[in-house]
Amino acid sequence: MSKAREKLLESFVGGVIMDVTSAEEAKIAEGAGAVSVMALYKVPADIRKEGGVARTATVDKIEEIMNAVKIPVMAKVRIGHYGEARMLEELGIDFIDESEVLTPADQYHIDKTQFKTPFVCGARDLGEALRRLNEGAAMIRTKGEAGTGDVNQAIVHMRKIRKGIAELVGLYELGDFYKEQGLEGTDHEIAESARKYGVPKELVYKVAMLKKLPVLNYAAGGIATPADAMYMIVLGADGVFVGSGIFKSEDSQKRAKAIVEAVRYWNDPRRLVDVSRGLKEGMKGIATEALEKKDMTQHRGR
Question: Which homologous superfamily does the CATH classification assign to the domain defined by 3-159+214-292?
Answer without folding.
Answer: Aldolase class I (3.20.20.70)
